[in-house]
Specification:
single chain; alpha+beta; Rossmann fold; OB fold (Dihydrolipoamide Acetyltransferase, E2P); 2 domains; 6-stranded mixed beta sheet; 8 helices; globular
């Protein structure tokens, strides 16, 4: 079943379209990562999915029913969806009272409120903070309480805006694990935004990429600043991060020496398990693997994080695992260069 379905949805401000999605469906009970640069429309889409904003044109279905964006029709829908900000705001009272507030509004009786609060605090490992003043919590603890507060309302969807942006590395791992657990045990659909491709690969079951308000397949992944050096009339050297370099044919457009931007098509990268005898390969380690319909998305650390899209039959033949040494071959046909 689809939790959301979008048809020809546009959102404009002052006559400028900032969101333009022809078609999108999100399946219930799944985790979706929404990637894209600043200004791509990620937060706008999240707000529309959370019924906090309305599209200029187009339609949105929620759980199989068309959404009417009239205020009185949106109130019951907002009870099914929780939007979690990257900097959640808590009342200055106790953690308990923060969680109790929404339950009171929904007229849940006191005995059940107590049981629900105990359950969700245990789930996010914050039981010991039940009566602590919320203003004394760290950033990671605040995020956990915000998750518990959302869980207490038994929503069908979590919409998370940069869920790990405001916490340290240790708490990032804890929040990722919590979101996975919530999805697995509560079957809550999750859509989260991020700039972190590694986070998206590690948490999301499906990845969506927005660029200039439109869904794109590969335009945001594998796009990096680089330096081009001319080796001969027929070859150039492309270097990223100062120390990862490989040779390419000089017939690629925009091959002037100096700074440039490179896009490496993840579907045209060849991957070999172990050390390859093929010339012009770069070795690295697999750091993430993610299924994506008929393909598998592998993220390989070769001095920078490179995404490789493998056809299912190719993946089944190679069987790369996380931590395995692999080699990638990036040929000229996989590369597009542009001025920096």
């Amino acid at each position: 079943m689809n939790v959301y379905q979008i048809h020809n949805l546009k959102k404009s401000y002052n006559g400028r379209a900032i969101l333009d999605i022809e078609y999108l469906e999100l399946n219930a009970g799944r985790i979706y990562g929404l990637l894209g640069p600043n200004g791509a429309g990620k937060t706008t889409l999240l707000n529309i999915l959370g019924f906090l904003d309305k599209p200029t044109t187009g339609t949105l279905d929620f759980l199989g029913k068309a959404v009417s964006f009239k205020e009185h029709d949106l109130q019951p829908l907002r009870k099914e969806v929780v939007v979690l900000d990257q900097y959640p705001v808590l009342f200055t009272t106790s953690v308990y009272k923060n969680l109790e507030f929404g339950l009171k509004l929904r007229k849940i009786d006191k005995t059940k409120r107590e049981a629900v609060i105990d359950e969700v605090l245990d789930l996010v490992d914050m039981t010991l903070f039940k009566h602590a003043p919320a203003y004394t919590l760290s950033g990671g603890e605040t995020q956990r309480v915000a998750l518990a507060r959302a869980l207490a309302l038994s929503p069908k969807v979590f919409l998370c805006d940069e869920p790990t942006a405001s916490v340290d590395v240790e708490n990032q791992a804890a929040i990722i694990a919590l979101l996975k657990q919530i999805n697995d045990t509560k079957k809550i659909s999750i859509v989260f935004t991020t700039h972190d491709r590694l986070l998206a690969a590690g948490l999301a079951q499906h990845t969506l990429v927005l660029n200039e308000g439109r869904l794109v397949t590969t335009g945001y992944e594998n796009t990096f600043p680089c330096r081009i050096e001319k080796i001969s009339d027929n070859q150039i050297r492309c270097c990223l991060n100062g120390n990862t370099c490989w040779l390419l044919s000089s017939d690629i457009p925009q091959t002037n020496a100096g700074k440039a931007r490179i896009f490496i098509d993840p579907e045209k990268i060849r991957l070999f398990v172990g050390r390859s005898e093929v010339s012009n390969c770069i070795e690295g380690k697999v750091v993430q693997l993610m299924e994506e319909s008929d393909r598998v998305r592998a993220v390989v650390n070769i001095g920078f994080l490179l995404t490789v899209l493998l056809k299912r039959e190719n993946y089944n033949f190679l069987r790369p695992g996380i931590g395995d040494t692999v080699a990638v071959s990036i040929e000229s046909e996989a590369v597009t260069l542009s001025s920096d």
